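Support case: user asked for a sample of complex input and structure output to validate their parser. Sending the pair below.
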Amino acid sequence: MSESDVTPAGVRGARPGREAVTGRAAGRRRRGGRGERPVVPEAEFSTYYGMPVLNPPRWEALDIAGYLYLGGLAGASSLLAAGAHRTARRRLALAAKSSATGAVSLSLVALIHDLGRPERFLNMLRVFKPTSPMNVGSWLLAGYAPLTMAALLSDVSGKYRPAGAAATAGAAVLGPAVTTYTAVLLADTAVPSWHDGYRQLPFVFAGSGAAAAAGVGLLAAPLAETAPACRLAALGAALELGNTELMKRRIGLTSEPLEQGRAGTLMRTSKALTVGGTLLAVCAGRRSRVAASVAGAALLAGSAMLRFGVFRAGVASAKHPKYTVVPQRARLQKQQNKPGTATS
Amino acid sequence: MTEQGPPQPGADHPPRMGFFTDTSVCIGCKACEVACKEWNAVPADGLELTGMSYDNSRRLGSETWRHVAFIEQRKPLGGQEPGVSHDDVDIFRAASGLGVTIASPGPGATAPEDALPGAPAGETSPIAPDGRTELRWLMSSDVCKHCTRAACLDVCPTGSLFRTEFGTVVVQEDICNGCGYCIPACPYGVIDQRPDDGRAWKCTLCYDRLGVGAEPACAKACPTDSIQFGPLEELRERAASRVAQLHGAGVLDARLYGEDPQDGVGGDGAFFLLLDEPEVYGLPPDPVVTTRDLPSMWRYAAAAAVTLIAGVAVSFLERSHR
């Protein structure tokens, strides 16, 4: 090269425009996408080159969102099984027990598959630690999974009926905890959209789990036994949708990721499936085999999509500095504005 | 619901040790990044150039336990006023007073209200006819904060993360099963999973060096003493006097970050002197340990579980009445 690339006008061939001042501009990126409007007016805030403050979860969506879904389905299924067992709805009980056993087994597979060192899974049980929802959950599953299997085996084989009934009851006691603890698992993180919703999220997951278990009942039980499943679908859907709405209103800015992008699509699809499935179940779930099956499948799919939606929304909220910085700034501002503590 | 925090120093415990990173004297040399990688045998993670600044390691993670942030701002840098003749100045003598006297206020200075006439102007002054303004560089070496109430430690399901006798938070890599729960729990985005290895890694505050009475590699390597290591109590005193000194010298931007034991994480074992808002450096302005709300979370989950039981019971009611 005979000539220098550095000229009085700058470096030859270099791209212009490296003069952006850090901070301000990075946070105010306009998000495109289907004309959605932000819930809260865009706030001005500083960032470090627009980079996230948090490290986002490294969990695989399929493994962990799947784990949340299957745990919810299993726990609520155990309750449905106990109810059906008590009221002598044999086929509904069998369907619910099968779904509980299958779902909890698969959920354990998903959980172990997601570990960086799967062979060390049992380290989860080397301590008991109430400050760690994942540790509590591992103990819960360690107690719960064998109970569901015992309940199912006794039902299928017809042997050890008293023990089977006890296992069914035991699974029904632990089941609701399995369904709702997964909400604590997500909320007990620094991920804004998960942590902020910690009051409503357990109710959302409880309702969604109930709807999914009702879906199994509608799919697999004969029409004569679907009545409780239809009612459970309605109650579960109401609990889920009501608390999702409440959560979005309460958490403000950090509800945005629940409505945008893929998470938003999943949440909207979930809502449509849950509402549609519930209406179909309530109207025709006791009369038409086809209607009951379609409703059941819709409820199961709706419940799964809710978990994937919530999961993805959380990851999105961790990846954008806005959801970390703006609420924390607002909190500091509020503290400073409190009478008595004001400094200026 | 959090772990009790560091042990009280006593007969069987050395005092709590930590870092005070004074970013006002950081020169961005990255010796700390290199020393950390070398001593702890942290794997390479690519030689990518970000193009955004001299910062090519971007952020803390499994392969970056010290990270030097570079920030450019349109603010005057003290001591670089144009149009002043320096012929009669003994620069070595002046340098010895750098950051100590008002005449040499050090980086980030803005002139005090009552400055003498002719003193450097506090406001950004155009220095070129084309309207370009002055520029200041902020450099800051970030590290794991070794929180008093550490979320990563609280949520670790295996007990792999533990609190050492020095009050620091360390991962036991022979126990970590790579569940990844600590990663989204950290309010500072420090700990991360090593992709090929599966386990979570972060700064250990050189636990191995502390054990034999040596200071951590980064502090040892820091040429300007921007990274100071010592007993936390002593560092807090030193930091308070440094802030007072800078304020006295007109660097009104100087503030401490993470030193307050009353903050959302109970104070940091590694705290900072910053020259701008924390978020400018990529730090959260008001971090809170997530497990603070955990008792409440368990209560809401219990209420939801009871609601679920009630819902199923109601669904079966009709039949049992017949």
